[in-house]
Specification:
By secondary structure, this protein is of the alpha/beta class. It has helices at about 1-10, 40, 90, 105-115, 135-145, 155-185, 220-245, 280-285, 305-315, 340-345, and strands at about 30-35, 80, 115-125, 195, 250, 325-330, 335-340. Helix content is about 35%, strand content about 10%. The longest helix is centred in the middle third of the chain and has 32 residues, at about 155-185. It is globular, with a radius of gyration of 20 Å. About 45% of the residues are buried.
């Protein structure tokens, strides 16, 4: 399967003249681009690119472990990671609020598309907009501390769908800006693949009791159930709708981490987990300039998780399926399962 995927990608990004690009030279170097927030930047994977680990206020945390670096691509293809931890839809779009250390990702894409033959663009964004996923996680931790009877999920059961609905037009606008950036470089919509990814749940109700506390995962079980089984799937459905509106392909990650969430593996070593537990960078906590980011890696994919998510994305890019879900095989490795088969997997 891996060999056939590489061959398919090699054909896709060969040096043949790209139909519909009258302004493009015949042999621009090929490139694949990732855009969006922490999941694609590689947050939690460590080994961050110099300049993205707090230098001059840049906390994009682009990791060598990021999914784009896990893709099986021919050696001549350039991998370009524009994703930035904490980015919202406006950063992906063309007109972000001033003050961001890197500015618009779409503007960067527009320039790159003139120097490279961009064959695939993968976008993952929305969690930092109205849904405020990081804030939700913090609220759930506070609910655990207070032993709140209804947990964090109580008020979210009615508010969360409204948050997802408010997020959707912002993500759609960002995708329209991505399309406009490619248009400005002479591309037609059919001359490249635009993929939208959703999010995997970093936690679930299967956590070990020994670490259901500040040593790893301080969440009420009822909140863990809501996050994995309700909140994340609703967010995924909302992003799927936006992808359809934008004419983009869609890769559903909502069930990708089941059984490998934070605190589900070895209680001491975390072996078997694809997501970080509550993580504190103690040296940063003692530095006033870095203290606010000392827990930034918490509940993001770790290096093993990025490898699995990258594997699934790589295989999806080598297909022509409009929609698929990342699901495990018998050995536990993630692969893209077409939408109709994924539905059967969910309801056997």
């Amino acid at each position: 399967m891996a060999v056939s995927g590489v061959l398919a990608l090699a054909l896709l990004i060969s040096d043949q003249y790209l139909p519909g690009l009258p302004l493009q030279p015949k042999q621009l170097p090929s490139a694949v681009v990732t855009m969006g927030d922490s999941t694609l930047s590689g947050e939690g994977g460590g080994d961050y690119l110099a300049g993205t680990n707090g230098e001059r206020g840049n906390w994009c945390h682009r990791s060598a472990a990021a999914p784009i670096n896990q893709l099986r691509l021919p050696p001549e293809v350039t991998r370009i990671n524009l994703a930035c931890s904490g980015a919202g839809a406006e950063i992906v779009g063309a007109a972000p609020e001033p003050g961001h250390p890197e500015g618009s990702q779409s503007a960067q894409l527009a320039e790159l598309a003139k120097r490279y033959r961009v064959t695939d663009i993968v976008v993952q964004v929305g969690a930092n907009d109205d849904v405020g996923f990081t804030d939700v996680v913090n609220q759930c931790v506070e609910a655990w501390v207070r032993r709140a009877e209804e947990g964090c999920a109580g008020p979210l059961r009615t508010d969360w769908p409204k948050r997802v609905e408010r997020m959707q037009p912002k993500v759609r606008s960002a995708l329209e800006d991505v399309r406009a950036a490619m248009d400005s470089a002479g591309y037609t919509p059919s001359s490249y693949s635009l993929v939208v990814q959703s999010y995997a749940s970093p936690v679930g109700p299967g956590i070990r009791p020994e670490v259901q506390n500040l040593s790893g995962c301080p969440f009420l079980t009822s909140d863990l159930e809501w996050i994995r089984d309700t909140g994340v799937p609703q967010l995924s459905r909302g992003l799927h709708e936006v992808a359809q509106q934008a004419g983009a392909r869609f890769l559903d990650l909502s069930r990708a981490g089941v059984g490998h969430e934070a605190c589900t593996g070895n209680p001491r070593t975390g072996e078997g987990e694809w997501f970080t537990r509550l993580s504190v960078d103690w040296p940063s906590l003692q530095d006033e300039r870095r203290a606010a980011h000392a827990m930034q890696e918490s509940y993001h994919a770790n290096a093993a998780g990025h490898r699995q998510l990258g594997r699934c994305l790589s295989e999806f890019l080598s297909t022509e399926e409009p929609t698929a879900a990342c699901l495990p095989d018998a050995q536990g490795n993630l692969h893209p399962v077409p939408e109709h088969a994924a539905a059967l997997h969910a309801n056997p």
